[in-house]
């Protein structure tokens, strides 16, 4: 078997949950009494996907590309930033093979939103929904995730590179 020139990337993120803030995950507005705090919209799923893709493509990390000291990114729509990252990958000859994510959140239940998140994320990256795989875990009531203080997420991404 000839293995294509592929690279793996890993993204990790965590955000605090705050009363009265909108909860946006994977570009989807989810009804909940708390939302993720952040300079941007706090969309940790988009954040881990960007970091995983940037890692695989060797293009840095979101903190460098979209610094939270820059007022331009205040309350930024993370899906738009994801679109920007997708463009950078293409410009560098990188094609997304697949993305696999885990979100750890005590509540709310996220599985019913997977399809909508996949549609939003894949459309921002101009890939197919089935190239985006999503999973969620509760915090089993343990620690800061289990008490609902925040959420965390991980993502791996596989990217095919043309021309080395
Ligand atoms: O059973 P196990 O301890 O591995 O997982 P869990 O944390 O109890 O979550 C069970 C299932 O609930 C997950 O596989 C997800 O499908 C779903 N889940 C969800 O939809 N939203 C969450 N915030 C957490 C879990
Ligand atoms: Zn983040």
Spatial shape? globular
Q: Count of helical segments?
A: 5
Residue stretches low in confidence (pLDDT < 50, at least 5 long) are: none
Number of strands: 7
Structural class: alpha+beta
CATH architectural arrangement:
2-Layer Sandwich
Secondary structure blueprint with pairings:
Blueprint lengths: L5 E14 L3 E3 L2 E3 L3 E3 L7 H14 L4 H4 L12 H14 L2 E11 L9 H12 L6 E6 L5 H4 L3 E12 L3
Parallel strand pairs: 5-6
Antiparallel strand pairs: 1-4, 1-7, 2-3, 5-7
The structure holds cytidine-5'-diphosphate and zinc ion (ZN).
The site of zinc ion (ZN) has 5 residues, from strand 1 and helix 1.
Q: Could you explain how this protein is built, in words?
A:
The chain is an alpha+beta fold and 164 residues long. The chain has a single domain (6-161), classed as 2-C-methyl-D-erythritol 2,4-cyclodiphosphate synthase (60s Ribosomal Protein L30, Chain: A, 2-Layer Sandwich). Helices cover 29% and strands 32% of the residues. It has helices spanning 44-57, 62-65, 78-91, 114-125, 143-146, and strands spanning 6-19, 23-25, 28-30, 34-36, 94-104, 132-137, 150-161. It has a 5-stranded mixed sheet with strand order 4-1-7-5-6. Strands 2-3 form a two-stranded antiparallel sheet. The longest helix is centred in the first third of the chain and has 14 residues, at 44-57. The protein is globular. The two termini are 19 Å apart. Residues 13, 15, 38, 44, 47 line the site of zinc ion.
């Amino acid at each position: 078997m000839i293995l294509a020139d592929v690279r793996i990337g890993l993204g990790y993120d965590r955000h605090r949950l705050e009363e009265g803030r909108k909860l946006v995950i994977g570009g989807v507005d989810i009804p909940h009494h708390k939302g993720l705090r952040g300079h941007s919209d706090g969309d940790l799923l988009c954040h881990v996907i960007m970091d995983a893709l940037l890692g695989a493509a060797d293009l840095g990390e979101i903190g460098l590309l979209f610094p939270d000291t820059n007022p331009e990114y205040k309350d930024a729509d993370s899906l738009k930033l994801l679109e920007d990252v997708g463009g950078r990958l293409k410009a560098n000859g990188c094609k997304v093979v697949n993305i696999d994510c885990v979100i750890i959140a005590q509540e709310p239940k996220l599985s019913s939103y997977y399809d909508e998140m996949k549609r939003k994320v894949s459309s921002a990256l101009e890939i197919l929904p089935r190239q985006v795989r999503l999973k969620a875990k509760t915090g089993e009531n343990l620690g800061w995730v289990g008490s609902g203080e925040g959420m965390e997420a991980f993502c791996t991404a596989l990217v095919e590179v043309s021309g080395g």
